[in-house]
Design a protein that fits this description.
two-stranded antiparallel ribbon, single chain, 310 residues, alpha/beta, elongated, binds S-adenosylmethionine, Rossmann fold, 13 helices, 2 domains, Serine Threonine Protein Phosphatase 5, Tetratricopeptide repeat
C-alpha cells in the first residue's frame, strides 16, 4: 500500500471511513474519530487513514490523541506527504521543523495547480506578483536574465516580461510548472527544490553560476522556514549588481521565523535583514502591505527589493 493512498484497499474500511467523513462534515468529529479507529483496526498500515483520524481527533479537541495519530502517520510515511511534522509542531508534539517536508509541499501544489489562480487571485485577493513587479519596475533597469524562483503557474512572468530578455522559472511542483508553460511567457521552466543546497536543488549548475541580473520569489519563502538554503541559491545565481525581489509573510516582532496554523511560515524583518547582510545583499526598498486574505482576514507581508554588491 502506498502511504498517500486515499483508499485503504479494503472495502469495509473504506465504507467506515466514508461514513466517518460524513459525520465529521456534519459537525460530529468525535463520532467520526471513533469510526475511523474502527476502520484502522482493519487496515493499520493506511497512512492517509491515520492522518484523517488525527484531524478528527484534533477537531474534537483531543490534542494528545491527535499527536499519537500524527506520529503513526509519520511512522508509516517517513517522506511526510501529509505534513504531519508541521501538525505535530503546532500541537506541541515536536519541535518546529526548519522547513516543511518537500514531498508535502510538492503534493500540496500538484493538487492545487488546476484551481490555484481562481482560488488565490479571484477569491483571496492575491496581489504579490503585481506589487513585486512594481518594485522591480522602480529600478528602471532592463534585465538580461531573470530567474523566477517558485514561479508556480507563472503569474509574475507576464508582469515583468517586458523588461527582461530571458526569463527562467523554477518550481518544486510539476503541475504548477505545466500551468506556467501554458502561458508561453517563460523561456525555460524546470523543477528545483529551493530547500536544498545549490548543487542538490536541481539545475543550478556551476556552468550557469552568477547568470542572473534579476532574481524573484513571489509568495514562496513562506514554504521555507529557515531561509539559508534559498539565499545560498540566490548567491549562486545572482551576478554582481543583480536585483533580488521577494516577499515574506510578516511575523511582526522578533528576529526569527514562526510556523503559523496555516502551515505556512512567517518571517520577521529583523531575521531577513540579518540574512541579507550575511549574503552581501543591500536593501533598496521595503514595502509592508497586505498580500492576500486567509479565512476572510488580511495577511500582512513584507516585500523586499535588494541588490547584490557590484
Ligand atoms: C503560493 S505559490 C506562488 C507561485 C508564484 N510565485 C506566484 O506568485 O503566483 C508558491 C510556489 O512555491 C513553490 N515552492 C514551495 N516550496 C518550494 C521549494 N522548496 N522549492 C521550489 N518551489 C517551491 C510551490 O510549488 C508553489 O508553486
Amino acid at each position: 500500500m502506498q502511504p498517500h493512498q486515499l483508499s485503504s484497499g479494503d472495502v469495509i474500511a473504506d465504507r467506515r471511513a466514508d461514513y466517518a467523513r460524513m459525520l465529521e462534515e456534519g459537525g460530529e468529529p468525535e463520532a467520526a474519530a471513533e469510526l475511523m479507529e474502527q476502520a484502522l483496526e482493519l487496515v493499520p498500515g493506511w497512512a492517509a487513514g491515520w492522518y484523517r483520524l488525527a484531524t478528527y481527533r484534533e477537531k474534537a479537541g483531543k490534542g494528545e490523541a491527535a499527536i499519537e495519530a500524527y506520529r503513526s502517520t509519520l511512522a508509516l510515511d517517513p517522506e511526510d506527504i501529509f505534513g504531519a511534522t508541521l501538525k505535530l509542531a503546532l500541537l506541541g508534539g515536536a519541535a518546529t521543523p526548519d522547513r516543511p517536508p518537500s514531498r508535502y509541499v510538492e503534493r500540496l501544489f500538484d493538487d492545487y495547480a488546476a484551481r490555484f489562480e481562481s482560488a488565490l487571485v479571484e477569491k483571496l485577493d492575491y496581489t504579490v506578483p503585481q506589487k513585486l513587479a512594481a518594485l522591480v519596475a522602480s529600478t528602471g533597469r532592463h534585465y538580461e536574465c531573470a530567474v523566477d524562483l517558485g514561479c508556480g503557474t507563472g503569474l509574475l512572468g507576464p508582469e515583468i516580461r517586458a523588461r527582461v530578455s530571458r526569463l527562467e522559472g523554477f518550481d518544486l511542483s510539476q503541475n504548477m510548472l505545466a500551468k506556467a508553460a501554458e502561458k508561453q511567457v517563460y523561456d525555460s521552466l524546470a523543477q528545483a527544490d529551493l530547500s536544498l543546497s545549490p548543487d542538490l536543488a536541481g539545475l543550478f549548475t556551476d556552468a550557469a553560476r552568477h547568470r542572473a541580473d534579476l532574481v524573484t520569489a513571489a509568495d514562496v519563502l513562506m514554504y521555507l522556514g529557515n531561509l539559508e538554503s534559498v539565499f545560498a541559491i540566490v548567491e549562486h545565481l545572482a551576478a554582481a549588481g543583480a536585483d533580488i525581489a521577494f516577499s515574506v509573510e510578516d511575523v511582526g516582532e522578533g528576529d526569527g521565523f514562526h510556523l503559523a496554523p496555516s502551515l505556512r511560515y512567517a518571517h520577521s524583518e529583523a531575521y531577513v535583514r540579518k540574512l541579507l547582510g550575511r549574503h552581501g545583499l543591500e536593501i533598496l526598498k521595503i514595502v509592508k502591505t497586505v498580500i492576500r486574505k486567509d479565512g476572510g482576514k488580511p495577511v500582512a507581508g513584507i516585500l523586499f527589493l535588494t541588490r547584490k554588491s557590484p
